[in-house]
Amino acid sequence: MNNRQDLLILGGGLVGMTLALAAARKGISSHVVDRADPADLTAEGFDGRASAISTASWNLFTNIGLAPRLEPHGSPIASIAVTDQMKPGEIDFTPEDNEGTLGRMFANRELRLALFEAASEEPLINWHAKANVVSRQRGEHGVSAILESGEELTASLMIAAEGRGSPTRDEAGITFAKWDYSHRAIIAGLTHERSHEQVAWEIFYPAGPFALLPMLDLPDGTHRSALVWTVDEKDAAGTLKLSDRAFLAEVEKRMGTMFGEITSVGPRSSYPLGFHHTAKITDQRLALIGDAAHGIHPIAGQGLNLGLRDVGALVDVLADGMRIGLDPGDAQLLARYERWRGLDSFMVALATDGLTRLFGIPGKTASAVRRLGMAGVQRVPVLKDWFMDEARGVSGDLPELLKA
């Protein structure tokens, strides 16, 4: 039986599944193939893995019908505080009262639950979970993938959404610039005595940023934050092996008593930090989205949001083309997507890389210069507004799906 769909999305994570849902809202059908077991990805418990959802990304979730499912689980980001080693010279990004928040924080588990629930109810999505792709084909008239089970899936356009190690991208021979920061991000969930007051903290140390991200309080009133702590690669294994008491002592050295006593720490995990950016994001009947196309440092919390901008742009392009009778894999449509997303994602990637290097310069003089610069930004409203618009994701040429 020929079960051909418009899209063949390889990778059903946060970006890939959002693409499938956004496409379905425009009447575009898809196969979604992912190796993972959804039950593992949505297991109970908070391990600190969380994502900052910008204003523009929240507009996308609203426009595809996810907001009612997600709203009860998100913590607003009322302001962002940026400081160099907790010394004077802090920047406080707080919007005016009528401008709303700077975004929302969600546990990744809650995002997945909402996406998976919506996908399971969507007739235009054929979801193939716990499935391995053993071969891929792209030709003049369509694309296909054969699963380990022997099933063949066909479509008009293939989407690589498998993340940083995308085999689809590599098989297509798409080259990319890449380097390793020789650091790891350690992630954990914290509970603490005082409220975070919906403030996201970015505390810069020479070894890397130390971020405290506001999570929703538990029903019993327990205050929670997600910790993303960047450490040198050589120190990561030892830091992960620390007892809870020793780990919390190290955390408190870096954040002081702003949240009162840290009462508990959840399971710790880590991942290596690196940069990559592909030379192009399309090929014959192929489009790259999310980390398959660009992997950036989490310093500004923009990784997922960058992928969601890809989603919005690609769906806009495909829907416009299909409305006038073009095939989803048409080269003209892919060229438009390339032009739209190639430069924007590259500029964001360069900016985060520059920030990483700037705040990683050790020494008192470098710290003093950074703090002087931050104090200058704090005093210039137009600069602060520009940074806040960037954090919200509302600058530049926005896809329709990312607009309110």
From TrEMBL:
Protein name, UniProt field: Ubiquinone biosynthesis protein UbiH
GO BP terms in the entry: ubiquinone biosynthetic process
InterPro entries in the cross-refs: FAD-bd (IPR002938), FAD/NAD-bd_sf (IPR036188), Ubi_Hdrlase_CS (IPR018168), UbiH/COQ6 (IPR010971), UbiH/COQ6_monooxygenase (IPR051205)
Stretches assigned to the FAD-binding domain: 6-339
Single GO term (MF): monooxygenase activity
Keywords recorded for this protein, A-Z: FAD, Flavoprotein, Monooxygenase, Oxidoreductase, Ubiquinone
Cofactor(s) named in the record: FAD
Gene3D superfamilies xref list: FAD/NAD(P)-binding domain (3.50.50.60)
Family: Belongs to the UbiH/COQ6 family.
Record carries keyword Glycosyltransferase: no
PANTHER family in alphabetical order: UBIQUINONE BIOSYNTHESIS MONOOXYGENASE COQ6, MITOCHONDRIAL (PTHR43876)
Keyword Oxidoreductase tagged: yes
Pathway: Cofactor biosynthesis; ubiquinone biosynthesis
